[in-house]
Amino acid sequence: MALSRDWVGARASVALTLLVGLLSVVTGIANIGVGGGADFHLLGVLVPGVVRQATAFTGTLTGFVLLLSAFGLQRRLRAAWYATVLLFPITAAQGVLQSSQLSLPLVALSVLALVIVGVNVRAFDRELSLTTSQIASLAALGGAQAYGTAGAFALREEFRDVDTILDAFYFSLVTGSTVGYGDITPNTAVGKLFALSVLLVTVSSFAVVLGVVFTPLIEARFSKALGRMTEEQLDVLDNHVLVLGFGDLTEPILEELSTQADVLVVTDDEERARRLSERGYTVLTDDPSDEEAQHRGKVGAARAVVAATNNDAEDALTILTARQLNPGVTIVAAATQRENINKLKRAGADTVISPATLGAHFLAESALGRKGAETLEEHLLGDDGGGDIEAAAEIVEEVDSDGATDEPRE
Known about the structure:
Blueprint: H1 5-8, H2 10-31, E1 40-42, E2 45-47, H3 49-74, H4 78-98, H5 104-119, H6 132-154, H7 165-176, H8 189-225, H9 231-235, E3 241-244, H10 250-257, E4 263-267, H11 270-278, E5 282-285, H12 291-296, E6 304-307, H13 312-325, E7 330-334, H14 341-347, E8 351-353, H15 355-367, H16 372-380, H17 389-402
Parallel strand pairs: 3-4, 3-6, 4-5, 6-7, 7-8
Antiparallel strand pairs: 1-2
Helix pairs in contact: 2-3, 2-4, 2-5, 3-4, 4-5, 6-7, 6-8, 7-8, 16-17
């Protein structure tokens, strides 16, 4: 049986990368100190115990880098894909070298994730594009650390316990992060003046970088409060149902679809978008008939499109746009007026249903004493465990031929 796109698509790649990253961190922390540095044999080869200690420590660091890569994959960055594909073999090797039962799941999951992410290379096609503020903040951080490291090493005679370039970098990083262990301190006035300058420069650079990092998170919270989606949320949409517009049928449609598929609603009504978002639905606040809005809603990756507003003209324009952007997608629509059914089909809809006409027909049939309409409704709504249209039609035929009962036959 073929695997669903949900299990092998972009979302699976992001989820597996997050899982491997977390497992690498947990495994590394659990294995730090295990074995006491004793030598061990791996496939007949003697491996020094210090290697196990080193891979446990570096495995933890690799896990954190993978978590960052997962964030990049969520934005569909090609650079994050390259980094992830490179890191998975490293995590697997680190798991092997840690040589413990705790590392076996890490090795197996790393191999599986490498395959899944590898086959989804086309899904991660966005080039890394940094804003001016991001570039400036990273440059400021790098320059500040370079200044602190080079200065501390050049003035090492003015400091206690600064003998190597590593000592100097340690002093600069600890000062900039405001940890301040106090193990390296200036001994002279020159050293103190330099330490003050390092404190001001490095702490400021860290603050700038944190501001750039947390600003998108704050924006995401505001977007959710206003019923808007962030670009990161839109990037991971795949194999979803795109509901274009909001009408009387939208909420019943969402209730039916939400338990069976991922759904994205596109509406230009901000109040309705906010309310739907508060109820847990995924909403994009934009014009549903606009080409750019449908692009953002990933109509090209959608499994189906639903147009069910109260305006047949708007639905027709929406259908035309969706059909142009994705010729192969299934499009269904609800016609407000029966005479517009053929028009919506000519616009590109595969299936068009007129709920008002259908409801009127059912009521008329029931008024005339025919029982098939109620039986069909019950079966389609799943009251008798059904829900299949073809099976419901067979039941209605049986009821019509019987003519004496409104209960479905076994």
